[in-house]
Every structure is written in structure tokens, then in C-alpha cells.
Design goal:
About 35% of the residues lie in helices and about 25% in strands. It is α/β, with parallel strands linked by helices and about 300 residues long. The chain has 2 domains: about 1-220, 3-Layer(aba) Sandwich (Rossmann fold); about 225-290, Alpha-Beta Plaits.
Length: about 300
């Protein structure tokens, strides 16, 4: 659905993007991660046909940015990291205005606006003035605006920026529902833990270069971060922890009151050696649970805090 080939963008002496090669499949949610100034917004603006690349190419739904921009625009919904709202308009008037801009008319426009209000849980605010909405509600309205023409691709730049925890959770639930509608979504964010849960594929960019792309587990493996497993045994807890600490595939063990955490080395093929080793040495397992690798740890491992 989205593909870039050696995509490069320069601003005089500044290279914002350098030979970016991305591939996002139809129906995926792609999480785009990077420090401020890494090139995320530049990428999204190029995909939204708002910025021309210096060199390289980008394709959306098979159409090339630049040559086919007029064909791409009806297929995408773009939500920038900050957007102005129209004063003296109600929520319903705001969405109706944008629906009209996309050529929707009459009963069809009214029906679509109503459906979008229901989908984004804004139906109860349809007569509220846009400027009176909370930050979370305005972000929902911005997302609703991107949906009025039923695009295939959503390009969302920091949609959860500035939201409180409840509003972020509600935004995440809404994006999952939109994915179930068959949309392809590319989303940039600094809220790494939420991207790990929400996205099918993640990409880490720094100084205009894509460092890694893949699932959370792929990224952890390529960043040489081993998994962590929570283990408990029926008795002799400390001795069991000491035994695991000496295993060649174990990177470290942290002993707690009722269990211990085993961090395995990145080269370990899986965690099956842990129960085999403990059972073979006479211990009775009462708990064996794999702990998810934190995306923050991967991010800190592979980035250096450099901007373009």
C-alpha cells in the first residue's frame, strides 16, 4: 500500500531524509518512531503529497507521489501534528464543510457525517462549538475530518500529542476500530509503549535514516535484547535462581520474594531450555511467564539521540 525507494529530502545543507526505504502492507498499522527532528514529519508530508522529495520515489496505493498526486489525495486522510480549527462553527458544520469539499452532497453527505460522528463518539457534541471542545475531543474531530471521504490510507502525525491518559486510551481504541474497517494507517508518536501494543509493524528513524523496521519482537532481536521470563518454583527458590544464573544462555537473574526474573541472551533460540533445565535438576515449576520486551528499551538501545 505504501512504499518508498531511496527517498531523500534536503533543505540546503540539511538532509532531513536519507535513502529511506519503507514498505507498509495493506491493512497494517505502521508505527513510526524517532526523536524530534529525525525526519518523521518530513516523511509523512511527502506521503501526503504536501512536500516534494529531493530524490527517490514514494508510492501510495500504486501511485507515485509527484506524478500521480492528484490520484493519491482522494485515497488518503492526513492529520498533521497540529491543525487549526474553524471558529464559530459547530462540530457538525465543521465535518459538513469538509465533506462538501470532497464533493459529497445532499442526503449522502448528511448520512456520512452522522456515521462519522457516531464512529468517533462525537454525536453528543454535534451542536457544540469547535473551539469549546477539550484537547482530546478536538483530536477526535481532527481524526473524524480525515475519514469523511472514506480514504484507504490514514497518515497521522502525533495524533495522541497532548492528550491525557484516558483520551489516549480512547484514541487507541478508535484506531483499532478504524483498522478493522480495512484502513492502512501510518502513525508517528513518542508514546512508545502504546505503539508497541497498537501497531503491527514499527520503524525507528534517526537523523533521517531508517535504523530498523519490523515487529516488536523483531526489533528486540535485532537490537540484541534478550527476553525476560518470570519463574517460580515450589521450594528452594534461591538455589534455583543461582542454578539459572550459571546457565550459558542466561544473561542475568533478579531474585524477588516469591519468584525470580531470568533475562536470556539474544542468541537463545527460545525459552524452553529454562523448564527443561530446572525440571532436570529436580525443581517443580509453579510459574513460567514470558515478559514482553519494552519498546523503550529497544529504542534507547538503537538510537543515539541525534537529529538531522
Amino acid at each position: 500500500m505504501i512504499r518508498t525507494v531511496n527517498l531523500t529530502k534536503r533543505y540546503r545543507d540539511l538532509t532531513a531524509l536519507r535513502n529511506l526505504n519503507l514498505e507498509i502492507q495493506d491493512g497494517e498499522i505502521f508505527g513510526y518512531i524517532g526523536p524530534n527532528g529525525a525526519g518523521k514529519t518530513t516523511t509523512l508530508k511527502i506521503l501526503a503529497t504536501l512536500l516534494a522529495p529531493t530524490s527517490g520515489t514514494a508510492f501510495v496505493a500504486g501511485f507515485e507521489v509527484g506524478k500521480d498526486s492528484q490520484k493519491i489525495r482522494p485515497l488518503i486522510g492526513y492529520m498533521p501534528d497540529s491543525f487549526g480549527v474553524y471558529e464559530d462553527m459547530t462540530v457538525e458544520e465543521y465535518l459538513t464543510f469538509f465533506a462538501a469539499a470532497y464533493g459529497l452532497t445532499g442526503d449522502r453527505r448528511k448520512r456520512i457525517v452522522g456515521d462519522i460522528l457516531d464512529l468517533t463518539d462525537l454525536a453528543g457534541k454535534r451542536q457544540a462549538m469547535v473551539e469549546s471542545l477539550s484537547r482530546g475531543m478536538q483530536q477526535r474531530l481532527g481524526l473524524a475530518r480525515t475519514l469523511v471521504h472514506d480514504p484507504k490510507v490514514l497518515i497521522l502525525d502525533e495524533p495522541a500529542s497532548g492528550l491525557d491518559p484516558r483520551a489516549r486510551i480512547e484514541m487507541r481504541v478508535l484506531l483499532k476500530e478504524i483498522k478493522r474497517m480495512g484502513k492502512t494507517i501510518i502513525i508517528s508518536s513518542h508514546i512508545l509503549s502504546e505503539l508497541g501494543e497498537l501497531c503491527d509493524v514499527l520503524g525507528i528513524i534517526e537523523k533521517g535514516e531508517l535504523l530498523f523496521s519490523g515487529t516488536s519482537k523483531d526489533l528486540a532481536r535485532r537490537a540484541a535484547i534478550g527476553g525476560s521470563i518470570e519463574v517460580a518454583v515450589a521450594d528452594r527458590l534461591k538455589e534455583a535462581a543461582d542454578l539459572m544464573r550459571a546457565h550459558p544462555l542466561v544473561q542475568g537473574v533478579v531474585l524477588e520474594d516469591t519468584h525470580f526474573h531470568v533475562t536470556i541472551k539474544a542468541e537463545a533460540p527460545d525459552l524452553t531450555f529454562i523448564p527443561e533445565y530446572l525440571l532436570g535438576n529436580g525443581y517443580r515449576l509453579t510459574l513460567l511467564r514470558e515478559e514482553e520486551v519494552k519498546l523503550e528499551d529497544v529504542f534507547m538501545r538503537v538510537t543515539k539521540g541525534i537529529v538531522s
